[in-house]
C-alpha cells in the first residue's frame, strides 16, 4: 500500500509511518454507539411525552357521568305523547309553558320558532326544560378500574341521578351549537368558525407569501434594502402571536371596520358591526403566518438546483419562463409543506383571536366573512377555564376534534404535495 | 503569441473576441483574450483546471452573467454585433448560441417535453412532433427513445441524458453550440458516441467545446485554443490558438508543448 510517488525524497520524509496511526476502530465505533443510544433515547422521550399527552386527553374525554334531570322527561308528556314523539307545535308549547316569558322571547328573537326544525326545538326543550345536569364526572381510568366504587358512591350520594358511561366526543357533540349546559354543549359553531378563519388565512397568506418568496429569491438583487427586508421577515416569524393580535385589533377590527364588518358592501347587521368578524380573524392569522410561508417558500425555491435554471437560461428562456416552468413546479412540494406547517400553526392559535375579539358564547354558525365567530382553540380555552370537571371533559373532547381536524387538513395537503412531487 | 491566421483562412468568422476580460467582482478570471470561432468548425478550448476555460466559454452566450458579481470588459463580436452592447438582450443571445453543460441536466419532464419546451417558449408554430423527432435524430438518440417519449428524461442513462441535452439545444435552431466538457462524466463508449455526434453536428452548426481531455480535443476539433494562467496577472488567458494539428504537432509555445505532451508541471 504505497501511495507516494517513487524518487521523491522529500515526500518520503514527510510521509508518516504506520506507527504514527492508532487505528482503534473498536473505540471509534463505541463512541458512535454511545451517541446513537443518546439519539434513540431522545426520540423515545419525545414519543413518551406525546403518548402521555394523548392518553391524558382521552382519559378526560371518556368516563362515567352521574346525570340528574331538573324536570323528569316523563312528566312532559302531552296527552300521553312522550317527548320523543311530539310534533313541532307540541314541543313549542311545552317549551313555552316551562320557561319564563322573556327567555322564550329571546329565543324567538334569535331565530323565530316557526323557522326552527323539530329536532332543533326538541333539543331546546331538552336543554332548557329537562335540563340534564351533571352531578359528577369520572375519568376513563377511574371508570374502568373502580366502577364498583363509583356505583356505590352514586347510589349513596346522588340517589336521583343516573349513572351513564359517557363519550364526551360523539356525533351530537360535533353537531350541536354551543350552549352553557355541559350536557348539551357542542362545537359545531367552533368548527365552522375555525374552517372559515383558516380559509381566509390561506387565501391571504398563500398568494402573498409565495409571491414575496419568488420576488426575494428570483428578482431581488443583493442590496442593503433587500437584505433589510429579508432580515425583517426572518424576525417577524419569531414575533409572539399576541403582538399580531394587537396589530389585528388596531388595523382590521378598528381602522378597517367598515371593510371587515361588511358595511361598505351594504351589510348592516347590528351583531357584527364592530369588526370582530371572521374576516378580521382570517386577515390577522394570515399576517401571522405570512413570514412562515415566505421563509419556507424561499427555502423551497432555493433548493431548485442551479443546473436546472442554467439549462433553462441556456436555451434562451426568460426569467419568468424559467421561474414559471421550472422553478415553481420543482419547488411546489416544498412550498406546500411550508403552507401545511403554517396552517397547522394558524388553526391552533388562540391568543391573537382573543385580542381580535372572537366570541366566547355564540350559538349560530358563521355564515359569511362578516359573521361573528368562535374557533376551536377559543372554545377549548374557555371551557378549560371553568371550574367544573365536566367542562374539562368537554375541552378534552374538543381537543380531540381539533387534533383530528388538523390531521385531516395535513393529510389533504400531503396528498396534494405527493401528487405534484411524484410526477417525474 | 496570438496567431492571426484567421484572416487568411477561408471559413467565415462567427464569434470573435477583442481584448476580452472577465471579472468575478474584483477578481480577474480571464484576461485579454483575442480569439475567433469559425463557422461549421469545431473549436476546442483546452488547458489546466482553473484557467478560465469554462468562464471564457460562458462569456460567448452571456451565461456567466448568472453568476452574481461577474462582468466582462472588451468585446465579443457575434454576427457583426458586440454581445456585450447594452442594446443586446441576453435572451436572444442564448437563443442563437446554445449551450450543453458538463453534467447532463435534462428538465425533470418527459423526453418529448424536454425538446418541445424550448421550441414552444420561442413561439415555434410548426409541427412539434416532427421537430422533436428531427432533433432526437440529429442527436443520434431517436432509435433509443422513440418508444418512450413520455418517460422522464431523468430515467435515461448518463450518455443518453447528455445527448438529450444536445437535442434540446438543437430544438431552438441555434447557430453556435457551446459545450462545456460534455463527456467528462461519461464512460469511454458514451464519450465516443458524443464525439461522433459532435462531428456530425459540425455540418450544420458551429461548435465550441471545452475539454480536459487532450485526445478528445485532438480527435474532434479543427481549431484549438490553449489557455493557461498568465504568470504576471494570475488570470487565465489564451496563450496559443491555431489549427488543432499544429497545436498538437508543432506548438509555438513551450508551455503548450509541455501541456499537450503531458510533461506539464
Which CATH class of the largest domain in chain A? Mainly Alpha
Query: What's the helix count of chain A?
Result: 18
Number of helices of chain B: 10
Apparent shape of chain B: globular
What is the share of helical residues of chain A? 55-70%
Largest interface: A-B, 19 and 32 residues
Question: Which key terms come to mind for this protein?
Answer:
heterodimer, A: mainly alpha, MetI-like fold, 2 domains, three-stranded antiparallel sheet, about 5% strand, flat, B: alpha/beta, six-stranded mixed sheet, 10 helices, 11 strands, globular, disordered N terminus
Q: In words, what does this structure look like?
A:
The complex is a heterodimer of chains A (424) and B (265). Chain A is mainly α and 424 residues long. Chain A has two domains: 62-166, no CATH class; 188-421, MetI-like fold (Orthogonal Bundle), CATH 1.10.3720. Helix content of chain A is 65%, strand content 5%. Chain A has helices at residues 9-14, 25-61, 88-98, 101-110, 118-130, 140-145, 147-157, 171-175, 188-219, 224-236, 241-255, 257-260, 278-302, 306-314, 319-348, 351-356, 376-384, 389-421, and strands at residues 62-69, 132-137, 162-167. Chain A is flat and about 110 Å long. The two termini of chain A are 45 Å apart. With 265 residues, chain B is an alpha/beta fold. Chain B has a domain at 6-103 and 174-260: P-loop containing nucleotide triphosphate hydrolases (Rossmann fold, 3-Layer(aba) Sandwich). In chain B, 33% of the residues lie in helices and 25% in strands. Chain B contains ten helices and eleven strands. In chain B, a hairpin with a 6-residue loop joins strand 10 and strand 11 (236-243). Residues 1-9 of chain B have low confidence and may be disordered. The chains are: A mainly alpha (424), B alpha/beta (265). Chains A and B meet through helix 14 and helix 15 of A and helix 2, strand 7, helix 3 and helix 6 of B.
Amino acid at each position: 500500500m504505497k501511495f507516494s510517488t517513487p524518487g521523491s525524497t522529500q515526500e518520503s520524509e514527510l510521509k508518516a509511518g504506520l506507527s504514527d496511526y492508532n487505528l482503534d476502530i473498536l473505540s471509534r465505533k463505541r463512541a458512535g454507539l454511545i451517541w446513537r443510544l443518546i439519539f434513540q433515547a431522545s426520540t423515545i422521550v419525545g414519543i413518551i411525552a406525546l403518548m402521555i399527552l394523548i392518553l391524558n386527553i382521552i382519559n378526560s374525554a371518556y368516563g362515567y357521568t352521574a346525570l340528574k334531570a331538573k324536570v323528569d322527561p316523563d312528566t312532559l308528556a302531552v296527552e300521553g305523547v312522550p317527548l320523543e314523539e311530539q310534533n313541532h307545535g307540541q314541543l313549542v308549547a311545552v317549551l313555552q309553558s316551562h320557561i319564563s316569558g322573556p327567555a322564550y322571547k329571546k329565543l324567538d328573537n334569535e331565530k323565530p320558532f316557526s323557522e326552527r326544525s323539530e329536532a332543533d326545538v326538541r333539543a331546546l326543550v331538552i336543554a332548557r326544560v329537562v335540563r340534564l345536569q351533571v352531578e359528577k364526572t369520572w375519568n376513563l381510568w377511574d371508570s374502568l378500574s373502580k366502577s364498583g366504587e363509583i356505583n356505590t358512591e352514586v347510589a349513596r350520594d346522588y340517589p336521583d341521578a343516573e349513572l351513564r358511561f359517557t363519550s364526551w366526543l360523539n356525533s351530537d357533540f360535533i353537531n350541536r351549537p354551543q350552549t352553557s349546559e355541559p350536557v348539551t354543549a357542542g362545537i359545531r359553531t367552533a368548527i365552522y368558525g375555525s374552517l372559515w378563519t383558516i380559509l381566509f388565512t390561506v387565501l391571504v397568506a398563500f398568494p402573498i407569501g409565495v409571491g414575496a418568496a419568488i420576488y426575494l429569491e428570483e428578482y431581488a438583487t443583493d442590496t442593503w434594502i433587500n437584505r433589510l427586508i429579508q432580515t425583517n421577515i426572518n424576525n417577524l416569524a419569531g414575533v409572539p402571536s399576541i403582538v399580531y393580535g394587537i396589530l389585528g385589533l388596531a388595523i382590521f377590527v378598528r381602522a378597517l371596520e367598515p371593510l371587515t364588518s361588511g358595511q361598505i358592501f351594504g351589510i348592516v347587521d347590528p351583531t357584527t358591526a364592530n369588526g370582530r368578524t371572521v374576516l378580521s380573524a382570517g386577515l390577522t392569522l394570515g399576517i401571522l403566518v405570512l413570514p412562515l410561508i415566505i421563509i419556507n417558500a424561499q427555502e423551497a425555491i432555493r433548493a431548485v438546483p442551479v443546473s436546472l435554471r442554467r439549462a433553462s437560461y441556456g436555451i434562451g428562456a426568460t426569467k419568468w419562463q424559467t421561474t414559471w416552468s421550472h422553478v415553481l413546479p420543482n419547488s411546489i412540494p416544498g412550498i406546500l409543506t411550508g403552507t401545511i406547517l403554517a396552517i397547522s400553526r394558524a388553526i391552533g392559535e388562540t391568543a391573537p383571536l382573543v385580542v381580535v375579539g372572537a366570541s366566547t358564547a355564540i350559538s349560530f354558525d358563521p355564515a359569511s366573512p362578516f359573521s361573528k365567530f368562535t374557533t376551536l382553540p377559543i372554545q377549548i380555552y374557555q371551557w378549560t377555564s371553568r371550574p367544573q370537571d365536566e367542562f374539562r371533559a368537554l375541552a378534552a373532547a374538543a381537543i380531540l376534534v381539533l387534533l383530528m381536524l388538523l390531521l385531516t387538513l395535513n393529510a389533504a395537503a400531503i396528498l396534494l404535495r405527493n401528487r405534484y412531487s411524484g410526477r417525474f | 503569441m496570438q496567431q492571426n491566421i484567421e484572416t487568411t483562412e477561408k471559413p467565415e468568422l462567427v464569434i470573435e473576441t477583442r481584448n476580452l476580460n472577465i471579472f468575478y467582482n474584483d477578481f480577474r478570471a480571464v484576461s485579454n483574450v483575442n480569439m475567433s470561432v469559425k463557422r461549421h468548425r469545431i473549436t476546442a478550448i483546452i488547458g489546466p483546471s482553473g484557467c478560465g476555460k469554462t468562464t471564457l466559454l460562458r462569456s460567448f452566450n452571456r451565461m456567466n452573467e448568472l453568476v452574481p458579481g461577474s462582468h466582462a470588459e472588451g468585446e465579443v463580436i457575434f454576427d457583426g454585433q458586440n454581445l456585450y452592447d447594452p442594446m443586446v438582450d441576453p435572451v436572444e443571445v442564448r437563443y442563437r448560441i446554445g449551450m450543453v453543460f458538463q453534467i447532463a441536466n435534462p428538465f425533470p419532464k418527459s423526453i418529448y417535453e424536454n425538446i418541445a419546451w424550448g421550441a414552444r417558449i420561442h413561439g415555434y408554430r410548426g409541427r412539434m412532433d416532427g421537430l422533436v423527432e428531427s432533433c432526437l435524430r440529429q442527436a443520434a438518440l431517436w432509435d433509443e427513445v422513440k418508444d418512450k417519449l413520455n418517460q422522464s428524461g431523468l430515467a435515461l442513462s448518463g450518455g443518453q441524458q447528455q445527448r438529450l441535452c444536445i437535442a434540446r439545444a438543437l430544438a431552438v435552431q441555434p447557430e453556435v453550440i457551446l459545450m462545456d466538457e460534455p463527456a467528462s462524466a461519461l464512460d469511454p463508449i458514451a464519450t465516443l458516441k458524443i464525439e461522433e455526434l459532435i462531428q456530425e453536428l459540425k455540418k450544420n452548426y458551429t461548435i465550441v467545446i471545452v475539454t480536459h481531455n487532450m485526445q478528445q480535443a485532438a480527435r474532434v476539433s479543427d481549431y484549438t485554443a490553449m489557455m493557461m494562467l498568465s504568470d504576471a496577472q494570475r488570470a487565465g488567458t489564451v496563450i496559443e490558438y491555431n489549427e488543432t494539428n499544429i497545436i498538437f504537432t508543432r506548438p509555438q509555445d513551450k508551455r503548450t508543448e509541455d501541456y499537450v505532451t503531458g510533461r506539464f508541471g
